[in-house]
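Appendix C reproduces, verbatim, an entry submitted by the partner laboratory led by Prof. M.T., so that reviewers can inspect both the input and the predicted structure.
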Amino acid sequence: MDNKELKSLARIYAFQFLYHLQLNHFSESREKLQEDINRESSHDLIESLLNEFETALLESDEQKEALTKLGPKEKSFAKKLILGVIKETPSLEKDIEKCSTNWNIEKMNKVDLTLLLIACFEIQHIDYTPDKVVINEAINIAKQFGTNKSSSFINGVLNKLFELNNNKQ
């Protein structure tokens, strides 16, 4: 498996973890993480949640193989995405709403919103991945996990974000 495929798996790992945090029964953990993100205690909480998440993935035959392929480098990248999205969620949501005409965050599909948060964070905060690659990855994950309209919605929002970012420079 090459580096590109492993990075894709790391994004899927981050997506699945963050998607679960979007669900109502994890809202308390998400809120605690957002409050404590800059404190030392957040590290323990995130590690605990990631361990629980990985245990659940390992119990799933379908996910087990993908998870075992992730090395420390890919897990570190996924964790960077996860922590970045949690820390920057309010700012990212504002940017997403600016780029998603006639859609507010509360009405968005949770899969779409999670993918948009990750891609928006990666575009704005991780310089070593080209924006077009990030957009393509988000679209591919949307095709795998979203509805039949998810990929076109995500493509439209992220292309608008890309245009806005490039006009700032």
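DSSP finds eight helices and no strands in the chain. Additional entries are available on request from the coordinating office.
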